Amino acid sequence: MQKTLSLSGGIQDRHLLPVTNMSTRLPKLVAFDLDYTLWDFWIDTHVHPPLRRHHVTGKVTDSQRNPKAIDFYRDVPQIMHRLQAAGVTIAACSRTDAPSLAREALDLILIPPMTGSDSSAKPVPAIKFFDQLEIYPSSKIRHFKKLHEKTGIPYDEMLFFDDEWRNQEVEELGVTFTLVPNGLNDRILEKGLEEWRKRHPVQIIEDVVGADGTLI
Q1: Strand pairing category for 52-53 and 110-111
Q2: Max Cα distance, the chain (Å)
Q3: pLDDT digits (tens, 9 = 90+) for 106-162
Q4: Cα–Cα dist 61/50, whole Å
Q5: Phi-psi region of 78 (alpha: psi -120 to 50; beta: other; left: phi over 0)
Q6: Does the active-site annotation cover 33?
Q7: What is the pTM assigned to this prediction?
Q8: pLDDT in tens, 160-172
Q9: Which uninterrupted H or E stretch holds 198?
């Protein structure tokens, strides 16, 4: 009986699941907006440089009188681990007017080790999880055309998470768009993956058992 590994890390018995849940196929590229998608602020208006990372706690703050915490939404770190472990290309697509500050924030934010990892594992700068960065004032259409040009990945193998409906324009290219109303979390991730799979179904070939009982 064949079993498959899900994105969440669990082993699934395919013969005990309905067809809609059998596929663990993932898009080749998953892209994220930054502001109010991965973090809860506009980097170009709410954050005052320079940024600082505390040498003991690893926490990142800006330079306001009441320093603002520069960090991701709660579920984001483990989402990044899971996508990276699954071999998915991860991209950031932001039209911010402060691209240098956004990159600095990604460089300073530390992603804690994956849940269940070895005790010797250390936090890693968030920027190391991103294979592609399209961070500059422009349309998301241009961002994705650049991603396609750089990676060669077809648009229909791309999934995009963003907090603004206007950026649904990327669907003109064939990209699957998922709205993020209150920050990225596990539920929104799974919703986006489910929608992408519905649009790009794959034929599931049932196991064939030979006369001796072995799989063919």
Answers
A1: unpaired
A2: 76
A3: 999 999 999 888 888 999 999 999 999 999 999 999 999 999 999 999 999 999 999
A4: 9
A5: alpha
A6: yes
A7: 0.83
A8: 999 999 999 999 9
A9: helix 186-199
Calpha distance 32→161 (Å, rounded): 5
The mean pLDDT of 12-37, rounded to a whole number, is 67
Residue count (the chain): 216
Which of the following is catalytic: 33, 62, 71, 162? 33
Residue corresponding to tokens 């055309």 = 145
Select the more confidently predicted residue: 192 or 17. 192
Active site residue 107: no
Of 98-107, 110-119, 178-187, the least confident = 110-119
Catalytic residue among 13, 35, 62, 207: 35
b/e map of 131-145 (b: 16 or more CB within 10 Å)?
ebbbbbeeebeebbb
Strand partners, 39: 35
Measured CA to CA, the distance from residue 68 to residue 7 in angstroms comes to 33
